[in-house]
Amino acid sequence: xxxxxxxxxxxxxxxxxxxxxxxxxxxxxxxxxxxxxxxxxxxxxxxxxxxxxxxxxxxxxxxxxxxxxxxxxxxxxxxxxxxxxxxxxxxxxxxxxxxxxxxxxxxxxxxxxxxxxxxxxxxxxxxxxxxxxxxxxxxxxxxxxxxxxxxxxxxxxxxxxxxxxxxxxxxxxxxxxxxxxxxxxxxxxxxxxxxxxxxxxxxxxxxxxxxxxxxxxxxxxxxxxxxxxxxxxxxxxxxxxxxxxxxxxxxxxxxxxxxxxxxxxxxxxxxxxxxxxxxxxxxxxxxxxxxxxxxxxxxxxxxxxxxxxxxxxxxxxxxxxxxxxxxxxxxxxxxxxxxxxxxxxxxxxxxxxxxxxxxxxxxxxxxxxxxxxxxxxxxxxxxxxxxxxxxxxxxxxxxxxxxxxxxxxxxxxxxxxxxxxxxxxxxxxxxxxxxxxxxxxxxxxxxxxxxxxxxxxxxxxxx
Length: 463
Fold this sequence. Notes:
Elements: H1 3-8, H2 18-27, E1 29-33, E2 38-40, E3 48-54, E4 57-63, E5 66-73, E6 78-80, E7 93-96, E8 100-106, H3 110-116, H4 118-177, H5 181-188, H6 194-209, H7 217-233, H8 239-248, H9 253-262, H10 268-306, E9 315-317, H11 319-329, E10 338-342, E11 350-352, H12 354-371, E12 379-387, E13 390-397, H13 427-438, E14 442-448, E15 451-459
Parallel strand pairs: 10-12
Antiparallel strand pairs: 1-8, 2-7, 3-6, 3-8, 4-5, 4-7, 9-11, 12-13, 13-15, 14-15
């Protein structure tokens, strides 16, 4: 291969003086990489500049125990260590898709190149700038897609339970309304006076509309046994089913006695069966109403969270709404976390961009949850307070903490303490950009093992 001719085919290098290209060739190592072999792997030090003269490579990253193709390095690509780059180690596998030829220059020669070969150095610095822009754009897109994937999975999980409850309860209600012919005959043959009907229905609707006392399992089982014994003693059919439903609505043995006194013996089975039907119907309707309300609340939270029906401009907004909506969005990850809200009463509205600020809450809360992953006691505390002309929002977790030696780096672009595939290092940088640049606020960190606090300071009026 005529290496000089190959280098001159590269757009970035075609105007570089020939003697500088010859210096590059004379000081480079040549590599023949077979199909399936790697040019570099995750963890390898980035200490050489690579130029692909023949062949191409796929970049593969391991995420959640699966390999994902994240890019491609084609013929004539300049990659690896570049002048003034701060990259330290590779994050992906560069696997050859075909037999390839590559030259590499050790970074130990960069000082000589920078001193003596200006045009060549300029090309590589421009290549680094382009790579940073492309990498940042791709990482931002990946971060958004990852956040969207998490959000979608959480919403699917949260919607599944109430939607399944609606389906289940509606089917049970349909069955209940199709009562058997024998039960229907018994109901329409009931003959009691208006006074007796009023006595029964008054108690019935008092129980339906009343506040039912919370009972533990032992108390509930004991009361069910008492009611079942009473029903059995009075020859009432399906005593086990009736007792379970009656207990749910706070019916006591005294209530059963009151019903019995108002009902002729020949009508008792029919009346108690009818009461059971009413209670079961009320219970199913209540379940459907509750599940439907949960779905409606979740959809409303999504709309408010994204502010998809509002213009992207600062408006006076209740901070608590965004915080609560964020907790709703992340509820699927908070099942075993104790959430404490120390919200200040009468907190004034702040002039904010609601949707970007919700991304701040999402990043901080999501990071807090991840930090508590291996903790036995998990507590997330969110506090709000007015201090002068500012609002202070504190998000505290009982996680492992952030080591002091890296606390001054956590807002740097691409810095992350998470494993490969679990974070891009863009989250906290975005937090700082949204708070400092868009809202003219500030972000503060306090951290020690078992306690990490991020404090967001926002001006109340538009800066």
